[in-house]
Amino acid sequence: MVFPEKCCGCEQQAAIEKYCFCSNCLNHITAAPSVYGRIFSLAIYEGPVMKAIHAYKYEKKKWIAHSFATWMHDFLIQHPEIQFDIIVPVPLHPIKEFRRSFNQSWLMAFYLGKMQGKPAVYHALVKIRNNRSQTNLDSDERKENVAGVYKVSRISIIKDKNILLIDDVYTTGATIEEVYKTLRRNGARQVKILTVAKA
Ligand SMILES: [Zn+2]
Q1: Which residues pair with 86 in a beta bridge?
Q2: What's the CA-to-centroid distance between 4 and ligand 1, angstroms?
């Protein structure tokens, strides 16, 4: 692993204290409450966490994936109630993945799988329609916009499995709910969701 010289939360040349953050940034991270007992997030989407996610996704600082995965790994150790058999990333549409050059959820899922000793499955789910961004849509429009856009690639991969679904940010939940329903409808036993941040 190549160590970054800069903190991912403030871009200062400060010493990295934990994950990719300096001690000052760590003091400005707020833990997020779980939702319905099945959606978990490491932190609230603000300040250094928001900056770090932005640097990861849009500035393509891929090493941050390893830091987030380490953070998720620690979180899972502290939350033994989150049991699962396989790790599944929220998929991007192939066109979007090609443009970004990587799926941010997959890289985290990949490293987390190594740390947890559990399989991470890249294309367990596929996104079959390149829907418009959820930004600027109201709650009903968001639900409609994501309806039917995900598909399970092979049912045998997820059938009767406890799944840990990985994403970067939990926003209104429309995307996560749609993925959740798709997995359950196709026979997943249980689905827990873990994201880096909760908006
Ligand atoms: Zn910092």
Answers
A1: 163
A2: 12
